[in-house]
Design goal:
The protein is mainly alpha-helical and about 110 residues long. About 70% of the residues lie in helices and about 0% in strands.
C-alpha cells in the first residue's frame, strides 16, 4: 500500500490532478498504518496456533511411542494379541473414498 501511495505522489497518472493524487496518497498511507496495526495484532494468535499445532503433533508421536512400548511389554510378558487388543484397540479401518456425487451408503 505504501508503494501505491508513492506512485500516486509521483504524478505519473495522466488524468489524476496533483492535489487529488496527494490527497489519495495521504488516505492510502493512513489505511496502510491501520492495516499494519491489525496485522500486527493478529500475529500473536497466529504464532500461538502454529505452536499448538506443533504440540499436537508431538503429543501424537509420544502417545504412539508409548503405546508401541506397552504392546512390546505385553508381548514379552506372554499376552495374546486378543488380550492386548482388549487394552489397546486396533486403529479404525480407513473409509473408502466415495465417487464424486455418489452416496456413501451405496458401497
Amino acid at each position: 500500500m505504501l508503494l501505491l501511495a508513492e506512485l500516486l505522489e509521483s504524478g505519473i497518472h495522466p488524468r489524476l490532478r496533483a492535489d487529488a493524487a496527494r490527497a489519495y496518497a495521504t488516505e492510502v498511507r493512513g489505511q496502510a498504518e491501520s492495516l499494519r496495526a491489525h496485522v500486527g495484532a493478529a500475529a500473536a494468535p497466529a504464532r500461538t496456533v502454529a505452536l499448538l499445532e506443533k504440540v499436537h503433533v508431538a503429543l501424537g508421536r509420544v502417545a504412539h511411542a508409548g503405546l508401541a512400548s506397552l504392546k512390546r511389554a505385553y508381548k514379552a510378558n506372554g499376552f495374546s494379541e486378543a488380550e492386548i487388543h482388549s487394552v489397546i484397540p486396533d486403529r479404525p479401518a480407513s473409509r473408502k473414498a466415495t465417487p464424486a456425487g455418489g452416496d456413501p451408503n451405496d458401497a
